[in-house]
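User: two proteins, same treatment. go.

Assistant:
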Amino acid sequence: MTTQLTQTKLNKLTIFDLYKHYAALESSFPLLCPESQELVKAELEQCVALRSEKIDRLYYAWAHHEDAVQRAKQEQDLLTNQRKHHENQINQIKRLIKWLRRAVTTDETSIKGNDYQFAFSELSNLSVEIRSDINEWTQKERLEFCVVETVTTTKHSVVSSIDGKVLEESTKPVTKSEIIPNLNAIRDAYKEGKQLPLGVKVSQDYSIRRKRLLTKKQITSSVDIVGEAASEYSSEFLSKLDSAGND
């Protein structure tokens, strides 16, 4: 039984084409005979049903990608936390190695294990660690160990028409001042043996280089393994040559 007037495969149309097809049928409706009008009514109902289904699919797609964004954000947070965890672990290991350098092997330039070593080299500047609030320092300490840092940034704005004519132009400097520790003054005072503010620590810091150790035992065992592998390969290769020659 025929359920539509046209031969259009409605289920193949996009949502845009369904709207266009519906509008075309609707505009032609008054011009048709009663029998054709009944077919158009049925075809219009099919258009509405298919169109509504595709509109619902837009919602499903939206919700699907919205859920995917949330999962991606959660995964990103997990990865960020994991990265921070590993970075903290690395920093703790570095602090332990530096502590060993200072507390245990003060005369050594490296710490050696069986397979690896950590070599140290002094950094040119002393390390300054501040664990106190400079606002709680005395006035004398602030005068001696603090400086005022003033940063001025300039915002230049231009408003122009589409054809490039400048309609409005302004330049606004923004200045921000902040009291910060004077690290050089702190280092100099430390070298001179002066009293530093509470919570301020100065120490010699080191860069750490990691190196793989190649011991005689390791080299010998490696040579033996390579030699055995080469010997096995040579024997297998020669035996194949012999069998090929006999053929």
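Protein 2:
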Amino acid sequence: MSRMGNNTKARGTAEAQFEASPVEMAKSLAEAREALRGYEASALADVAATLAEVAESLARTSRELKSLSPDEWMDAEEAAVYLKRTPKTFRNIVAAGEIPRHYLTERGILFSRKELDEWLMNR
């Protein structure tokens, strides 16, 4: 046989090895699909774990920043607006001693936002 004939025969044998029956092809595709499902589940689990870690880190950072923030001080008018009360209602609440107040002078009373928040949350 000629050299060309040998090459054609060898190529035909190699191609025959790579040809698969429809059943074998379906089996291979099913195996590939199953492998991809496993990979997808694993990747999603990793993403979920990473997101949970990020959420916890953000919550921790938020708590730390809140504890570090300086207290904000307000006069009576600002405190009434902050609590969404009319000035008269706010004065009545203050007069009843429900909200802590801090005197700078007889007329200079200040209210702590932190204490107002605590009062509001404890109602």
